[in-house]
């Protein structure tokens, strides 16, 4: 499944906008199962590539929730050593300022997790402008 994660995430995220509530719920569950069963770094990359800059609120909310769960699962100290750490820190800063309250909540929780670790705090300072912090 790891090799197809990027394509699968794009297709499922497209199902989230302009769909009935039961389809949105099924898509969220499917993405959650996918995130649990693939390599965390691959899932994080696919979510960062496909959903953070989406125009649709439901997509950003779902992506923010899944990124938070990945960050909690992996831990800030483990992520700080990867090449995707700055992208995730930047995405957390962006999502923490989102117009939708649920998305903003998940983004703020990610920022809090980063701020609780010295490496994470340095990542945020490098990737998020000081006025946004």
TrEMBL record:
Q: Got a GO cellular component term for this one?
A: cytoplasmic microtubule
Under Gene3D superfamilies, the record lists: Leucine-rich Repeat Variant
Q: Which InterPro entries match?
A: ARM-like (IPR011989), ARM-type_fold (IPR016024)
Biological source species = Erithacus rubecula (European robin)
According to the lineage, what is the superkingdom?
A: Eukaryota
Which GO terms are recorded in the biological process aspect for this UniProt protein? microtubule cytoskeleton organization
Kindly list the GO molecular function terms attached to this UniProt entry: microtubule binding
Name of this protein: TGRM2 protein
